[in-house]
Amino acid sequence: LNERPYKSPHVDAFSVFTYLYIVWFFYPHLLTYYKWLYEENFGNPYVGRELRALLRETGFINIKASASYQCYEPLSAIAEYLALRIEDSAKEDQAVEKGWTDEMSLTAMSNGLREWSQHPDGFFAQAWCEVVGQKG
Q: What is the pTM of this model?
């Protein structure tokens, strides 16, 4: 069988409940900004919902779709990764020069993520959309 699995993070399926909503409430720019970074660097953050069609359009048959979640423990690891990515965007993506944000907002978003990661009720799970098919 010529099966090829494809897996993609599905940004809009982040299950980042319990306390992170507070970070987004105070820093609503955070999610919008991170989606923009994703689009600028990796492409479509919603490609997970298109994986079946992409395989079918390229000749795959017997396509099966599923989803799984990746939970991050310790929470500080994913928060630090996201915080550093946001901070680095000033230099790597010229985000400030492009007018997408300012240094103060970058610092506030990064610090908010780090603060959230220390909350005992914090939880972060990322959805992954997966498809497997046979080349027809």
A: 0.69
